[in-house]
Amino acid sequence: MLETSRLSIRYGEMLAVRDVSINVHAGEIVSIVGSNGAGKSTVIKAISRTVPISDGTITFLENRIDRLSSHQVVELGVVQVPEGRRLFPFMSVRENLLVASRTREAKRLRDQILQRVLSLLPLLKERENQFAGSLSGGEQQMLAIARGLMANPNLLMLDEPSLGLAPLLVTKIFGLVETIRENGVTVLLVEQNVTRALSLAHRGYVIENGIVALEGSGAELLQSEYLRKAYLGM
Asked: Which residues have a Cβ under 8 Å from the Cβ of 107 and sit 6 or more positions away?
């Protein structure tokens, strides 16, 4: 479904990502893990076309998307839920959801998609007329993910969805990610929570200093001696 080939990205003189090649197959959850500042988020921002690439290619469903604008990528079905939620705090839950129905297909199916999203997250149905800024941190994260689903994605990219949440809420968020995949949406997950992200993933990539240091199935990576020492303190 998605492939980056030898992707490199610069911020000014700094080479933030170098020769990163990843692929995501339809129906998978693929996790990109690593420490803060390793280049994980930069990779999915490049896929979303919100940062320019210096070299390499990005292909989605056999279409070169590294030459497209961000709104064209969304039209193809690639949707990013950004780190930090980025909600409209003084708009209602319902308004935050409806504003995401911007693609042609999402507009056409807006009412149908809205009902599907609210049935998936009944808590948001209860809070439908409440300001987004008045929700708890976990509720806001669920709303951010739900807003991404309103764009009717084929591939949903999640950037640090568990950041700043209590352990019980983290469990709920990862459960939601699995449910989303079961409902037919492929997921590319960027996370610092290495154990949770790889436990959930079919396959994973470990990025260090802008390069892919390890790759394999989620289970294989969790058994890696290097990863256990470097990230899990074991």
From this structure: 101
- Return the amino acid letter for 160: E
Neighbouring residues of 216: CB distance < 8 A, sequence distance ≥ 6: 203, 204, 224
Contact 150, 97 (CB under 8 A): yes
Encoding tokens for residue 210? 């802008």
Q: CB–CB of 68/144 below 8 Å?
A: no
What DSSP assignment string belongs to 162-211?
TTT--HHHHHHHHHHHHHHHHTT-EEEEEES-HHHHHHH-SEEEEEETTE
User: What one-character DSSP code corresponds to residue 103?
Assistant: S
pLDDT tens readout for residues 12-55: 889 999 999 999 999 999 999 988 888 999 999 999 999 999 99
Collapsing DSSP states into helix, strand and coil, what is residue 96? helix
Count of Cβ atoms closer than 10 Å to residue 19 Cβ? 15
Determine the Cα–Cα distance for residues 133 and 129; give it in Å rounded to an integer.
12
Assessment of whether the complete model's pTM goes beyond 0.90: yes
Q: Which CATH architecture has domain 2-231?
A: 3-Layer(aba) Sandwich (3.40)
What would the DSSP string read from start to end of 104-147?
HHHHHTHHHHHHHHHHH-HHHHHTTTSBGGGS-HHHHHHHHHHH
